[in-house]
Design a protein that fits this description.
Distance between the termini: 37 Å
Helix content: 40-55%
Order of helices and strands: EHHHHEHEHEHEHEH
CATH topology of the largest domain: Rossmann fold
Strand content: 5-15%
Strand order of the largest sheet: 1-4-3-2-5-6
CATH architecture of the largest domain: 3-Layer(aba) Sandwich
Structural class: alpha/beta
Number of domains: 2
Number of helices: 9
CATH superfamily of the largest domain: HUPs
């Protein structure tokens, strides 16, 4: 059987606020008019002329709309990749760790993990903060349930790292982590796992996503990475 851990609901008070703010950022039809209104308020506070007020109300949302462009997706993706820490060149057999990120990313990460399990490159797989169905997907890909464990407890990347570190300490105390997630979360997650004293081998699993979905993930991870930098976690 799959060694799976579930936890009683214990909501973090700030998560609804985070999702509200991210939802606003991910909805141009709401964010851009709000930006125009803020421009008007700023122009009134600065006592700008009528033409200056109109320019500010138009230029602010126009400039902000650039974050939804393919160019912004590429530039921010490159910046996120630059935050990836150096990986160790070699070491003992690792445990593959997959992070909960939705079905599309789970499809890519489970395929990457199963391939390395079949090839003997990793000794086990741990699914952190996801539905049990992601672990069961590994079984469908031919991996023995006894080599799979995980939890549906972690709600943040930091909790992914702390709960995984606790499990590894009990079951594979000397094993490094082959950390598998999408390329946008991977740098931040690698730092979180390294902060737990784990040796991290990052592996990006490229999901099949549309351009708007890629942009949504890039914006989310850019905000999260900036927060980690402010918190001193990177």
């Amino acid at each position: 059987m799959i060694d799976w851990r579930t936890c009683p609901p214990a909501p973090l008070a700030w998560i609804p606020l985070r999702e509200l703010l991210l939802g606003l950022v991910h909805t141009p039809a709401l964010l851009l008019p709000l930006t125009a209104a803020l421009g008007l308020a700023l122009a009134w506070w600065l006592q700008l002329s009528r033409s200056g007020t109109a320019a500010l109300a138009v230029l602010l949302p126009l400039a902000l709309s650039a974050i939804y462009s393919p160019l912004a997706t590429d530039l921010l993706s490159g910046w996120l990749q630059s935050q990836l820490p150096a990986a160790p060149s070699s070491g003992p057999a690792a445990v593959a760790v997959l992070l909960g990120r939705g079905d599309a990313i789970a499809a890519a990460s489970t395929e990457a993990a199963a391939q390395r399990l079949r090839q003997g490159q990793v000794v086990a797989a741990y699914v952190s903060g996801d539905a049990r169905s992601t672990a069961e997907r590994l079984v469908q890909l031919g991996i023995a349930p006894t080599r799979i464990a995980g939890d549906s407890c972690a709600r943040t990347t930091w909790e992914n790292a702390t709960l995984t570190a606790a499990w590894l300490g009990q079951h594979h105390p000397s094993a490094p982590v082959l950390l598998i997630t999408d390329p946008w979360q991977l740098p931040r997650a690698s730092h979180a796992f390294t902060r737990q004293g784990l040796q991290v081998q990052p592996l990006a699993a490229e999901p099949q996503l549309s351009a708007p979905e890629r942009n949504r993930l890039v914006l989310r991870e850019t905000a999260a990475t900036l927060l980690y930098l402010l918190q001193g976690r990177m």
